[in-house]
Specification:
Number of strands: 0
Strand content: under 5%
Distance between the termini: 35 Å
Radius of gyration: 18 Å
Helix content: over 70%
Shape: globular
Number of domains: 1
Order of helices and strands: HHHHHHHHH
Structural class: mainly alpha
Length: 206
C-alpha cells in the first residue's frame, strides 16, 4: 500500500494538471475563452507553489525538476488535444516557460534545510517575477506572428503592461498556495519535516 505522502504528491500534481486544463475544457464545452468577455480566475493556479515544493520535498533531485515539467507538458498536450490548435499548446516561447519552472524548482532546493513558509514566500515571489519577465519577453521576442506586439522597446513595454493583471492573479495564487503547502500539516503530508520537528530532533540529540 502506498504511503500517504505519495497520495499527497499525486493529488497536488493532478490538481495542478486539472487547473491547467479546466479553462480549455470549458472552452471546448462552449464557454467563451476571451478573458475580456468572460469571468474566470485566469492564472489563479498552484503550479508555481507546487514547483517550489517539489524542489524542497522530492528526495530525488532529478525528479524534483522533472515532475513539474511533466505536469506542464501533459497540460500542453491536453490543450492541443482539446483545442486542436497545437500553436496554443506549444508556442515558440515554451522552452523559456519551462526554464522558469526549472528555476523555481531550484529555488525550492535552497529551502531543503529550512522548509518554512517565511522563507518560501520570498522565493515564490522571486519565481513569479522571473516567470513574468522571462515568459512575456518570450511572447514579445519569439511571437513570430502569434502576438500583436511590435518588435520595439515600446512593444515590449506594451506586452509587459498587458500582462500585469494576469501577473497579479498569478502572484496572489502563488502566495496563497505557498503559504498552505508550507504549513506544518502539509509539509508532514508531503513527507517533509517542518522546521519545528527539525529543531526538536536537534534538541534531543545526544
Amino acid at each position: 500500500m502506498l504511503d500517504r505522502k505519495y497520495w499527497f504528491w499525486a493529488g497536488i500534481l493532478l490538481y495542478c494538471l486539472g487547473c491547467r486544463l479546466l479553462p480549455w475544457a470549458l472552452s471546448h464545452a462552449g464557454m467563451p475563452l476571451d478573458p475580456e468577455a468572460t469571468w474566470y480566475p485566469w492564472n489563479f493556479a498552484p503550479m508555481m507553489a507546487v514547483t517550489l515544493l517539489c524542489g524542497t520535498g522530492v528526495t530525488n533531485w532529478r525528479w524534483a525538476f522533472v515532475l513539474p515539467l511533466v505536469v506542464r507538458a501533459a497540460g500542453d498536450v491536453g490543450i492541443g488535444l482539446l483545442t486542436g490548435n497545437w500553436d496554443w499548446a506549444f508556442p515558440p516561447d515554451n522552452l523559456l516557460t519551462y526554464a522558469c519552472f526549472v528555476f523555481t524548482a531550484w529555488l525550492g532546493t535552497r529551502l531543503r534545510s529550512r522548509p518554512q513558509w517565511t522563507l518560501a514566500l520570498p522565493a515564490a515571489v522571486l519565481g513569479e517575477i522571473v516567470f513574468f519577465l522571462v515568459s512575456n519577453f518570450g511572447v514579445w521576442w519569439l511571437g513570430e506572428g502569434l502576438s500583436h506586439y511590435p518588435p520595439t522597446m515600446a512593444g515590449l513595454w506594451w506586452c509587459y503592461t498587458a500582462a500585469l493583471p494576469f501577473f497579479g492573479r498569478s502572484l496572489l495564487s502563488t502566495l496563497v498556495f505557498t503559504r498552505l503547502l508550507y504549513s506544518p500539516v502539509a509539509l508532514r503530508m508531503a513527507g517533509i519535516a517542518p522546521v519545528e520537528d527539525l529543531r526538536a530532533e536537534v534538541a534531543v540529540a545526544p
